[in-house]
């Protein structure tokens, strides 16, 4: 084997597959779903406030007529 082949063998990249730790991905999933729940709760509360305001407006329109 000549020196160029030896150097070429040394310079080859070694690729290693790293499996993700399942416990961290579960924690991330739990955190994500918790964030999604909070986001949905905020949206639902906004929707309820909007509907209450709309109902008040509609009730006023009915009583005026």
Describe the fold and architecture.
With 65 residues, the protein is an all-alpha fold. It has a domain of 30 residues. It contains 2 helices and no strands. The model has no long low-confidence stretch (mean pLDDT 78).
Tags for this model:
rod-shaped, mainly alpha, 65 residues, 2 helices
- Major pleated sheet: none
> What overall form do the CA principal axes indicate?
rod-shaped
Strand content: under 5%
Give the helix level as a range of percent: over 70%
Uncertain stretches of 5 or more adjacent residues? none
User: Looking at the chains present, what oligomeric state does this protein adopt?
Assistant: single chain
Ends distance? 100 Å
Number of helices: 2
How much is the average pLDDT?
78
SSE order, as H and E? HH
Tell me the structural class. Answer: mainly alpha
- The overall strand count is 0
- The gyration radius over C-alpha positions equals 31 Å
How are the SSEs placed, and which strands pair?
Elements: H1 3-11, H2 22-64
Summarize the structure.
This protein is mainly alpha-helical and 65 residues long.
